[in-house]
Amino acid sequence: MTYISNKKKLLEEINFNQIGVSFKGSGSYVPDQILTNQKISQKVDTSDEWIKSRTGISERRISNLGDNVTEMGYKAALTAIEMANWDIETVDLILLATSTPHDLFGSAPSIQAKLGANNAVAFDLTAACSGFLFALITASQFLKGGSFKRVIVIGADQLSSFVDWNDRRSCILFGDGAGALAIEATNEYDNFIGFDMSTDGKRGSFLNLPSKNNKEKIIDNIDFSSGGFSPIQMNGQEVYKFAVREVPLILDKLFRKTKYSSEDVNWLVLHQANQRILDSVGDKLKIPKEKILSNLEKFGNTSAATIPLMMDEAIRNNRIRQNDIIATSGFGAGLSWGAALIKWG
Prior knowledge:
- The chain is of the alpha+beta class.
- The chain folds into 2 domains: 2-190, Thiolase/Chalcone synthase (Peroxisomal Thiolase, Chain A, domain 1); 193-204 and 232-343, 3-Layer(aba) Sandwich (Peroxisomal Thiolase, Chain A, domain 1).
- It is built from 10 helices and 15 strands.
- It has a 5-stranded mixed sheet with strand order 1-7-6-4-5, sandwiched between helices. It has a 4-stranded mixed sheet with strand order 8-15-14-13, with helices on both faces.
- β10 and β11 (222-226) form a beta hairpin.
- It is globular, with a radius of gyration of 20 Å.
């Protein structure tokens, strides 16, 4: 009865003809294990100087047996809910952006159960490094459509499980972690200003995590492909060229569509893939370096977790403040990319 009365009260507060989105909380979690560039250089032929000069990364977090996407996502979501000061029973939807679920059938339901969010629908969304942004956009549309009142959007990935640790070109890039945002519907204003999304499957081979498809027999002449995945495969040069071209274009398009400009932006929060990409995008949009948020040095590329992980850090150290305008873009496997313009609060 408590949930029903709380839910009814929340819904009565909304004018369904004018629903906006409000950002109420953030959270994050990273594993304790730290893998530095120096330690990687003991495994493969590389060096701290080489890695930092080409990527901006100094260290990354690696999950141990106690960490997985469900556990990391749960901890990030819990801290976001605590910041929002929500009754857990009023959460309607949990969206988990991940490409490395703890359970291939979906990890979001397990997070729902661990949180005790018994009244929430929960499901996974897979779009690799674009995943969190795509999930955030999806959640905003559910809220604006009046279907839900309160949503937890999580980005979590455990890429260390799918890295070839003998490939010095790719093993230096990736780490594990999770981040989350708590967002809700409101009829007072709309802080989800606009978005754009794009996909080019023709370039999908530049970055993927393919299945192994090992051929085995069930009986007689009946074959099947056994489950399993190959390590992450990436054409780094092509992914770099894709990002530095497409991300500024989609952000510029979004600015024009929403009648904002790069000068209106307080913070640029990009998917944390490579510091050179962040710098190049900022230069093309004429956004000063001091407005480009980066924690790539500490965490590397955590795929769907990078944007909420960065946002939570900046919110908790008071860089991102109430009513700040944030331009954000996710880009990567698929190939897929997108952008959103939001106001914090």
